[in-house]
Write a structure and sequence with these properties.
The complex is a heterodimer of chains A (201) and B (73). Chain A has ten helices and no strands. By secondary structure, chain A is mainly α. Chain A is elongated. With 73 residues, chain B is mainly α. Chain B has three helices and no strands. The radius of gyration of chain B is 27 Å and the shape is rod-shaped. The chains are: A mainly alpha (201), B mainly alpha (73).
Chain lengths: 201, 73
């Protein structure tokens, strides 16, 4: 009971409604793990979900989620508050998963920058609404088939609703390169969709 | 605007089971290990540095202190 009273979260001194940024500041000042637990409770399932979606294995996703949070803890003092904490956290998650896939040598070449090789014959602009409103089961199937690099960039854009600037920061690429990558990922998505669901497309 | 990416995320998170506590324990043990290694490095790094200085013919800082503040007697 007494120990619980000393715990700022359990004792109610720390309202769980604190913003992420406030929680980070408090954690850095006090090094009290209760503050980190708030962030963990808020984002662990999302981080695990992203890892699972990209790595396609529960065990790998669990290990990846653990390592992502360790990275976050070690680098929390470097968080600049320029972007939302969630964006920063997801950027670490995506980068970690992409690195992991590179290490596993799966989908090799997919993540390599081959912007110059493709894209000479770009189709007309694909409407975002068409992609976002794709039937969920079909969406899952197509996302599982397209290369992981394309899937990751589509998740950043449509699921996390990141801006081009934020994606640039995550991928460490120029704005034009990111725009081109998004365009190619969308084309890949539509092409794969049409191949699978010929009758509908 | 309808966004089925979000709906897919919800479905996948329901399908994929993960134990929050297992990951949390893993994070804690990783952090303990990192802190332990850091404290070991902090504790012994100056001594190792002094050893290298001595081996290369220099004078370790500990001995220099006496030279910097000589007894004026």
């Amino acid at each position: 009971m007494f120990i619980n009273l000393l715990n700022p979260v359990i004792s109610g001194i720390v309202p769980k409604s604190l913003s992420d940024e406030d929680v980070i500041v408090s954690y850095l000042e006090s090094q009290n793990s209760s503050y980190f637990n708030i962030l963990y409770d808020r984002y662990s399932s999302k981080v695990f979900g992203k890892c699972f979606s990209l790595l396609k294995s529960e065990a790998k996703a669990q290990d990846a989620a653990q390592e992502v949070f360790v990275k976050v803890l070690l680098n929390l003092s470097k968080f600049s508050y320029k972007s939302k904490f969630s964006t920063w956290l997801y950027s670490i998650t995506y980068n970690f998963c992409i690195d992991q896939i590179r290490k596993d040598k799966k989908n090799i070449g997919v993540l390599v920058d081959d912007i110059n090789q493709v894209g000479e014959e770009l189709e007309d602009e694909i409407d975002d609404r068409d992609i976002m409103s794709t039937n969920v089961i079909r969406l899952k199937k197509v996302l599982d088939i397209i290369p992981t690099g394309d899937k990751a960039i589509l998740l950043m854009k449509y699921l996390d609703e990141m801006s081009i600037k934020e994606i640039c920061d995550i991928l460490n690429k120029s704005e034009s390169a990111v725009k081109m990558k998004i365009k190619r990922a969308k084309e890949k998505f539509v092409k794969t969709y049409k191949e699978i669901y010929k009758d509908v497309a | 605007m309808k966004n089925n990416f979000k709906e897919l995320e919800n479905i996948e998170s329901e399908e994929a089971s993960f134990d929050k506590d297992v990951i949390k324990n893993g994070i804690e043990s990783d952090m303990k290990l990192i802190r332990f290694i850091t404290s070991i490095v902090e504790m012994y790094f100056p001594k190792v540095a002094s050893l290298f200085v001595s081996m290369s013919g220099g004078e370790p800082d500990e001995k220099k202190e006496n030279v910097d503040y000589p007894d004026l007697k």
